[in-house]
Design a protein that fits this description.
Elements (H helix, E strand, L loop, with lengths): L7 E7 L40 H6 L3 H11 L8 E7 L1 H4 L11 E8 L2 E8 L10 H18 L12 E7 L21 H4 L8 E4 L6 H4 L4 H9 L4 H14 L6 H19 L11 H41 L5 H14 L4 H8 L3 H10 L6 H4 L5
Parallel strand pairs: 1-4, 1-5, 5-6
Antiparallel strand pairs: 2-3, 3-4
Helix pairs in contact: 7-8, 8-10, 10-11
Length: about 375
């Protein structure tokens, strides 16, 4: 690739969040060039791993170091090695193309490739589930990108269109099942002469849930660190990555990125991992690391106890359901007796009397309480 050709990438972050309407055009109606667009979610996603990927997530990808590491570590193509990643810049901020449209969840970068600029288009389009028509959506976004580049005079007159490499960044629980090329969505029965007229588009899928290459996990790659945080399962996992970030971002020139990580940890990751916990005022990554190191044992024990309690609740419910399915109407009472004896060391006569005359609804209520109740009186208290 030589001459006046440039290169643009679209990065779509398909994170689990409220899904958007199928029709792409309502997202762009009434918007003026140079303004971010407002996208209204159509439904909530209670299964989201994160509370919300609010603007703090976009703020992370507004730092050239993170974008450079994403390209360097996750786009394994020969042309990436030829990019001068030190020249990454956002055209709007540099004044080169102030009218280049950026929407609510996208960022436009450019980087030198030899004597030419390569345009990097990061589209952080959060969604709650796999979109089977992702290739169709990306076809629309690529077309809009070309329009914006032409209007901003960033395509030489009479010159070729810059190549576009769409990338989908996905971190949902379900395995990605959508076709990664537009041709796979069309009927295979089309005659070749008709198929030749159909639009073509492929995108690269980056699944954050996929295991990281061992060399990336310890290489200081900031994008890999972000993905490790999102995939963390315990407070210790979070603290380990944050401790590494403190070391990797020690340079005072990276102060803005350190603050961006702190904001995202406070607003998104920790509220999702330890809901209901009030965090102290923290403004620095070093302070965040110290706080995590102090609390990691407490939080780990709380997570463990909550897991045990939830397991007991589910076991109790399943035991009662199994008892009824097996035709043992008093199976749930037997299970309750065993749990009560284990927790309180015995079963008083008045409890035996209550169990013998209980209805299925009462047994189920007491079964829920036996896990957390502090006394037999509390467990068998009359419901309001």
């Amino acid at each position: 690739m030589r001459g006046d050709e440039g290169l643009a990438l679209i990065l779509v972050s398909a994170l689990r969040r409220p899904a958007f309407t199928r029709d792409p055009w309502p997202h762009f109606k009434g918007c003026k060039r140079g303004l971010s667009l407002h996208v209204t979610p159509t439904n909530a996603a209670p299964e989201s791993k994160m509370a919300a990927h609010d603007p703090s997530y976009k703020r992370l990808f507004a730092h050239r170091e993170l974008v450079a590491d994403l390209l360097r570590g996750f786009v394994r193509e020969d042309w990436v090695t030829e990019l001068d990643l030190a020249t990454l810049e956002r055209p709007r901020e540099s004044g080169v193309a102030a009218d280049l449209r950026e929407r609510e969840d996208d960022l436009i970068w450019r980087v030198r490739w030899g004597e030419q600029w390569v345009y990097v288009y990061l589209l952080l389009e959060f969604q709650s589930r796999v979109d089977p028509l992702m290739a169709v959506r990306l076809l629309t976004y690529v077309g809009l990108l070309y329009e914006d580049l032409a209007a901003a005079r960033m395509i030489p007159a009479g010159g070729p269109l810059p190549p576009v490499v769409p990338i989908v960044l996905y971190n949902g629980h379900a395995r990605w099942s959508a076709a990664t090329e537009l041709a796979a969505l069309r009927s295979p029965a089309l005659p070749r002469s008709l198929d030749a007229w159909q639009p073509q588009l492929r995108y690269l899928l980056l699944d954050e849930q996929a295991p990281l290459a061992p060399e990336l996990a310890s290489s200081g790659n900031l994008a890999a660190a972000l993905f490790r945080l999102e995939n963390s399962r315990t407070p210790a996992d979070i603290q380990q990555v944050v401790a590494s970030l403190v070391e990797w971002l020690a340079d005072p020139a990276r102060d803005s990125l350190r603050r961006a990580f702190v904001v995202w940890l406070k607003r998104v990751l920790l509220p999702a991992r330890v809901p209901g916990v009030e965090l102290p005022p923290i403004h620095d990554l070093q302070e965040m690391n110290a706080m995590l190191a102090e609390r990691v044992k407490t939080w780990t024990e709380e997570w463990k106890q909550e897991g045990i309690r939830e397991g007991m609740r589910e076991g109790m419910r399943e035991g009662m359901r199994e008892g009824m399915r097996a035709g043992i109407p008093r199976g749930e009472a037997k299970l309750l007796r065993r749990l009560i004896a284990r927790r309180f060391g015995g079963i008083p006569a008045w409890v035996e009397e209550r169990l013998d005359g209980a209805s299925e609804a009462q047994l189920e209520t007491w079964g829920e309480r036996v896990v957390d109740g502090l006394s037999l009186e509390e467990i068998f208290a009359e419901s309001d």
